[in-house]
Amino acid sequence: MKQIEICGKKYEIDCSAFTFVEYHRFFKTGIMYDIEFIKNYLIKQSVVSEQYKDKKMSEAEKLSQISSYMIEDTDEFVIKITQIAWILIYTVNKKIEEYEEWLKSITDFRIDDDWIVEVTEIAVDCFCGQRADRTVKED
Prior knowledge:
Layout: E1 2-6, E2 9-13, H1 17-27, H2 31-52, H3 59-92, H4 99-104, H5 114-128
Antiparallel strand pairs: 1-2
């Protein structure tokens, strides 16, 4: 189990097979599809940022250009990352408010918030790779 902080509030998060099933039940989509979208979004953002790295323009202009290029996917990214964050919290705490109510508590949201990286990492580790807190038996 890991702890994240969103808008000054700390949450325990974790995932399991239950998370996989409950995600589909709540959001009517697959968590693997959404994790893949998030990974691709972050890769695309990194590639686009790298392309603007050496351009002769102000940092504000670069940020504006990158934001304009990424805007098409940003809405979906925000929805998916908040849904994944909520379900990871729900896995640990079934008494958390409903997703829409919980979203109201996120009053300061930035694409580069630390919790977004943490949520992405734990979801990817849980569903796509080996988690650090698990050991693999060798025969």
